[in-house]
Write a structure and sequence with these properties.
267 residues, alpha/beta, TIM Barrel, 8-stranded parallel barrel, 9 strands, globular, binds SN-glycerol-3-phosphate, binds magnesium ion
Length: 267
């Protein structure tokens, strides 16, 4: 049986049985995966924020999407090749005039901002995952979450099945979500079987991958489904009518409004 995202929230959700998730924070309006983008999501009173995590060269979990820093900063090189102190010199807000000078957050800083205010989906990026169970990015993230007392309000997700298995070995009570990667699973394998195999709590896929038969399969297994990344209202409404448990959006304010207006779904 799965664990729906709305069971992890601090406050009652905008829509019953559903989670409005700010993708990389309020990233349509503010630089993605930064503290101002998380503060923006909190200000919009959305249910949860999603952030991506990689490791710096000195092994610090940092909140950033791409393995290379170019898209976020205009600079060169890889996150994994810089120490935290070196990464902090780059301007992660350079593409947004009002947010120039924004620094890369550590996961610890993001947790400090979010604790008691907004639930988090921590996506562990494949580039940070290693084969060993202990001492890697998974355990580092979990330790920080426990230290902040946020374990009841965090779900971990990953495209990398190793990360999901490691998390459950370290702490079976941690909530995890499979991020579907079609290159990893035979087409005949339905979501329910994948989620059970990885001992996960939810199934997440893109708006283009979800189908009525996958929704049925997840419902039959009691597995919640969350969909990324949806910025247009029409698709938001269609997915809510299909009974998805959450949507990731770069425009979480638009999603929140659509979620409050949409008729309830018989689940
Ligand atoms: O977790 C949903 C989504 O963030 C996965 O894709 O590439 O935006 O991290 P990506
Ligand atoms: Mg992500």
């Amino acid at each position: 049986m799965g664990r729906p995202y709305h069971s992890l929230l601090y406050n009652p959700p905008a829509r019953a049985g559903f989670a409005v998730i700010a993708h990389r924070g309020a990233s349509a309006y503010l630089p993605e995966n930064t503290l101002v983008a998380l503060e923006g999501a909190i200000g919009m009173e959305v249910d949860m924020a999603e952030i991506d995590v990689l490791l710096s060269r000195d092994g610090v979990p940092v909140v950033v999407h791409n393995e290379r820093i170019h898209r976020a900063t205009g600079g060169r090189g890889r996150v994994a090749h810089y120490t935290l102190a070196e990464l902090k010199r780059f301007d992660f807000g350079y593409r947004f005039r009002q947010s120039r000078g924004e620094r890369i957050p550590t996961l610890e800083e993001a947790l400090e901002l979010c604790a008691g205010r907004i639930a988090l989906n921590i996506e562990i990026k494949t580039g940070a995952v290693r084969d060993q169970v202990l001492g890697g990015v998974e355990e580092l993230c979990m330790d920080l979450v426990y230290r902040r007392g946020m374990e009841a309000h965090v779900v971990y997700s990953s495209f990398d099945p190793r990360a999901l298995l490691h998390l459950k070995i370290i702490d079976p009570s941690a909530a995890t979500a499979v991020l579907y990667d079609k290159r990893l699973y035979p087409g005949s394998l339905a979501p329910g079987a994948i989620v059970e195999h990885l001992r996960a709590d939810a199934f997440n896929c893109s708006r283009d991958e979800i189908s009525a038969s996958w929704m049925d399969d997840c419902a039959a297994h009691g597995i919640p489904v969350n969909i990324y990344t949806v910025d247009d209202e029409k698709t938001m409404r269609r997915l809510m009518a299909m009974g998805v448990g959450g949507i990731f959006s770069n425009r979480p304010d638009v999603l929140r409004k659509a979620a409050m207006e949409a008729p309830p779904t018989a689940l």
